[in-house]
Amino acid sequence: MFNIDTRSRIPIYEQLKDQIQNYVRLGILTADEQLPSIRGVAAQTGVNVNTVKRAFQELESEGIIYSVVGKGSFISPDALDSTVSAKKALGEIEEQLKSIKLKGVTKQELTELIEKIYKEEE
To answer: Which of 2, 54, 59, 83 would staple 65 via disulfide (CB 3.0–4.6 Å)?
Structure first.
């Protein structure tokens, strides 16, 4: 279910988070659907249990999943309401954009990159 690229610069917990969020967006994971256990994901991916736990904790704090003691983690009914995630993402990218601007990247170059990324999704 999950594919981890150990050579990627993206931290493993972020890769897991992104994949779960993409599965929700694509309808592969639906509201109230149970996720595999943290230990199960760790075993399947060969990732440390604490790394998977961090991904699940962040997803829970963002309202994408919820946990039931003794039962596991489930997709939140509000997971498709990406307002919270989108606001957080915009806040994170704002700092990166300021840094990019200081490094001399032009608005035109950035716009072209954004267009390319969104075009790849289609």
So the answer is: 59
